[in-house]
Amino acid sequence: ILNVEQSPQSLHVQEGDSTNFTCSFPSSNFYALHWYRWETAKSPEALFVMTLNGDEKKKGRISATLNTKEGYSYLYIKGSQPEDSATYLCAHSKAAGNKLTFGGGTRVLVKP
Amino acid sequence: EPEVTQTPSHQVTQMGQEVILRCVPISNHLYFYWYRQILGQKVEFLVSFYNNEISEKSEIFDDQFSVERPDGSNFTLKIRSTKLEDSAMYFCASSEGLGGNYNEQFFGPGTRLTVL
How far apart are alpha carbons A4 and B63 in whole angstroms? Predict the structure, then answer.
């Protein structure tokens, strides 16, 4: 994998349902994997910074896992709520202070 | 809670004109970045700035672009002669530095640049 890719591009979720989506990234020269939540007209909000293989992080109903050997991360939303509607971006960095390389995002729409 | 701010939120300009996009990073941060997102495309890196000089830049960041930290708070991106293809959302970001939470970067809300 040469680029950061996210799938699916978009998904619709019924309120109360759980969902997950994927970020794949180059497994070589890995330093950190970042997840952001981005609502239109607002700043992308940092959710997680993940560095260790097997790492799991949680923030409320949102959690993420990391596999650096195979180059993927999953983001999970448990019991989706309308306020979870946003674009979720992942980004990869190769070193401290280094640029972030972004995936295309997964746009999540939670229907009441 | 400290945040990155950007002005203006929306800038409309004529092709060939110069624009300056302004950012105020979080006050104790040492690394500063500009990214942009052209509509329908990925967010892409433009430039990073540390210790009053460019630390990394992308192929996009050609001679038409420049960055400056004119005082202790502002960080600006100048486009000397705008082109239609410069139309995008421009994001400023900052991070604490090498020791800070694995390069966690905090983003501003963006400036939407429209070149006519």
Answer: 28
Chain B residue with the nearest C-alpha to that of A4: B42
Contact call for B102 and A49, based on CB within 8 A = yes
C-alpha closest to that of B66 among B41, B90, B47, B91: B47
Which residues does A contribute to its contact with B (CB < 8 Å)?
Answer: 4, 31-32, 34, 36, 41-44, 46, 49, 51, 89, 91, 93, 95-105
B110 touches chain A (CB under 8 A): yes
Reported as a single tens digit per residue, the pLDDT across A43-53 is: 999 999 999 99
Kindly state the helix (H) or strand (E) to which residue A74 belongs, with its residue range: strand A72-77
Maximum Cα–Cα distance for chain B, whole Å? Answer: 43
pLDDT, position A1:
60
pLDDT tens per residue across span A88-107: 999 999 888 789 999 999 99
CB contact under 8 A, B43 and A97: no
Name which of B115, B59, B66, B60 is nearest B87 in CA terms: B115
Dump pLDDT digits (tens) for B41-97. 999 999 999 989 999 999 999 999 999 998 878 999 999 999 999 999 999 999 987
Helices (H) then strands (E): counts for chain B: 0, 11
Distance CA B64, CA B70 (A): 18
